[in-house]
Amino acid sequence: MSENLRNFTSALYGFDAVVKRMPADAWDNPSGCEGWTGRDVLQHQCAVVNGVEAVARTGAMAAPSAPDDVSDPVATWTACREQVSATLDQAGVLGQAGPFWFDAPDVDALIGFVQWDLLGHTWDLAQAGGLEAPLDEAAASSALAQVLERQDMLIESGRIGQPVDVPEDASVGDRYLGAIGRNPAG
Q1: Residue 186 above 80 pLDDT?
Q2: How many CB atoms lie within 10 A of CB 42?
Q3: How far is it, in rounded angstroms, from Cα 125 to Cα 33?
Q4: How many CB atoms lie within 10 A of CB 47?
Q5: Nearest Cα to 80, choosing from 95, 60, 65, 63?
Q6: What DSSP state is assigned to residue 102?
Q7: How many CB atoms neighbour CB 33 within 10 A?
Q8: Could you give the residue ranges of the DSSP H alpha helices within the chain?
Q9: Topology classification of domain 3-135
């Protein structure tokens, strides 16, 4: 297993942990992502994961693909998670050459980058449910490095907000959240 796959899988299952703990009546609550409910965050994250799965399955550029029906958010997410996991588990998938999203040269680099989105939206979804967000330290460290390398482009394209100052001794997860424009202090 590559380090990128390890971090992506950790981020995937961190999001999964929040999905499974979401109170049934919290899906339409505001999330940590301005203007989005918990259900919106889930639908977006399914779209990203479905897009990654399509790239990995076909070896060709594919767009994110949101599910039409998120009336059962847990079932919708579980299907997306299982499909991307099964696809990424196939021999040779990670080495398929791109370029893919963000000029990733192969599938391994693609998942190494997009895991930042999973981590950020894990925190966002947790805010909608009043839950703690499990941000794996290794994945957060990798995501922080990826975001800082492309921060200007991510801000200009509206993918992240303006950075939020966090204490110098903050955890790597909190530094990551600050880098993507989230205030981990609330």
Answers
A1: no
A2: 29
A3: 8
A4: 16
A5: 65
A6: G
A7: 21
A8: 3-21, 38-58, 73-88, 107-129, 137-156, 172-179
A9: Four Helix Bundle (Hemerythrin (Met), subunit A) (1.20.120)
| CB-facing half-sphere around the CA of 166: CA atoms within 13 A | 21
Please name the residue that has the structure tokens 């907000």: 161
Confidence tier at 101 by pLDDT (50, 70, 90) = confident
Q: Which residues contact 148 (CB under 8 A, 6 or more apart)?
A: 179
30 secondary structure, DSSP code: B
Q: Using CA atoms, how far apart are residues 47 and 51, in angstroms rounded to an integer?
A: 6
DSSP 3-state assignment of 97?
A: strand
Measured CA to CA, the distance from residue 35 to residue 161 in angstroms comes to 13
Q: Is there a contact between 172 and 140 (Cβ–Cβ < 8 Å)?
A: yes
pLDDT at 24: 96
Distance CA 43, CA 39 (A): 6
How is residue 139 written in tokens?
């994945």
CA dihedral defined by 30, 32, 33, 37, rounded to 10 degrees? -20
Ordered by start, the domain boundaries in the chain are 3-135
Q: Is the pTM of this model over 0.85?
A: yes
pLDDT digits (tens, 9 = 90+) for 147-163: 999 999 989 998 888 99
How high is the mean pLDDT of the chain? 94
Contact 114, 48 (CB under 8 A): yes
Q: Which two tokens stand for residue 36?
A: 């989005």
